Amino acid sequence: MSEQKPARLLSISVGKIVELFTRNDLEKSKVFSAIRKQAISTLYDPVSIEVTKLGLKGDQQADLRVHGGENKAIYVYPVEHYPFWNDLLTKANNKHVHLPPGSMGENFTIEGLLEKEVYVGDTLMIDQLECTVTQLREPCFKFVAKLNYKGAAKAMIQSGFSGWYLRVNKSGYVAAGAEIKLIAGPRVISIADQNLSLLKKN
Q: Where are the beta strands (DSSP E) in 63-161?
């Protein structure tokens, strides 16, 4: 039996605050977000990126009440879920969709770790970084607008393909291609467990 490959970081993405859409309700209002991420370190160009306790250098958050801060400094998303989204959006748009890394609004696109394997309180060692898993990502209306698909938030919750947030305990530099080492914490509730609880509420 072949040995399982170690988890690794495939891509690092950041985003600037831009207008996402204009809300057409009683009073037109612009909605801003930095959910549109662009890859700045990839396997083909593994640039080292500085990471502080508030996240990646060059990354922004439009609403610090729900994004960013020390407990949501980095958003991680498994590349294994991308075929699901590509297929869903291809069918919804009647044309081929191939989403690039960062399309879920994540900072780290990874492979080799899924929500059922990652628990709140686990430590992830990535290059110079030491991070703690804090919680799952709950999709919001900005995620729906970003994908331009009304069922996006529901699909994320129902699939369990949420990704998770990290707190940065030890800052430093990180580049795409880095191996990810998981050190188990208390192992009381996994990200998949958190998503199941969210699913029951919706």
A: 74-78, 108-111, 123-126, 129-136
> Sheet containing 74-78: which strands, arranged edge to edge?
38-42, 8-14, 108-111, 74-78, 164-170, 129-136, 123-126, 180-183
Token look-up 């707190």 returns 167
Half-sphere exposure for 115 (CA within 13 Å, toward CB) = 22
Q: How confident is the model at residue 66 (pLDDT cuts 50, 70, 90)?
A: confident
Can you identify the CATH homologous superfamily of domain 8-201? PK beta-barrel domain-like (2.40.33.20)
Instruction: Determine which helix (DSSP H) or strand (DSSP E) holds 166, and give its type and residue range.
Output: strand 164-170
Query: What b/e string do you get for 95-106 counting C-beta neighbours within 10 Å, with b at 16 or more?
Result: eebeeebbbbbb
Q: Which two tokens stand for residue 54?
A: 């508030």
Q: What is the pTM of this model?
A: 0.95
Read off the pLDDT of residues 3-34 as tens digits, 9 standing for 90 and up: 678 999 999 999 999 999 887 765 668 889 99
Q: Where are the domains of the chain?
A: 8-201
> In Å, what is the CA distance from 101 to each residue of 23, 55, 79?
27, 18, 8
Give Dmax (Cα) for the chain. 62
Positive or negative torsion for Cα 109, 199, 19, 85 = positive
- Distance, CA of 175 to CA of 168 (rounded, Å): 15
Beta strand 55-56 with 74-78 is unpaired
